[in-house]
From TrEMBL:
This is Uncharacterized protein. It comes from uncultured bacterium esnapd14. Residues 25-41 have a biased composition (Basic and acidic residues). It comes from the Bacteria. Residues 19-47 are annotated as: Disordered.
């Protein structure tokens, strides 16, 4: 699990998710490994067509949240 930044902001997590989506679509091994580790059903997460919502879920899970909405709620509540 990744450690939450000292001053977390939703935009940083959005950028991480978008970067993961691009990297997975480009076939980058580390991005695909992240999908395999953190997506609840990695077999259904085709890297070549990875949706942003799936990348967001992976990012949220890397920080210990079950899904993207939980991460967003945590950030809205002032961490």
């Amino acid at each position: 699990m990744l450690e939450m930044p000292e001053r977390p902001h939703i935009d940083n997590f959005r950028r991480q998710a978008r970067a993961l989506q691009r990297a997975a679509r480009a076939g980058e091994p580390e991005a695909i490994a992240r999908l395999d580790r953190h997506h609840p059903d990695p077999a259904s997460a085709d890297p070549k067509t990875l949706q942003l919502s799936a990348a967001q879920m992976v990012v949220a899970r890397e920080y210990g949240f079950a899904n993207w909405p939980q991460l967003v709620q945590y950030l809205k509540n002032g961490s």
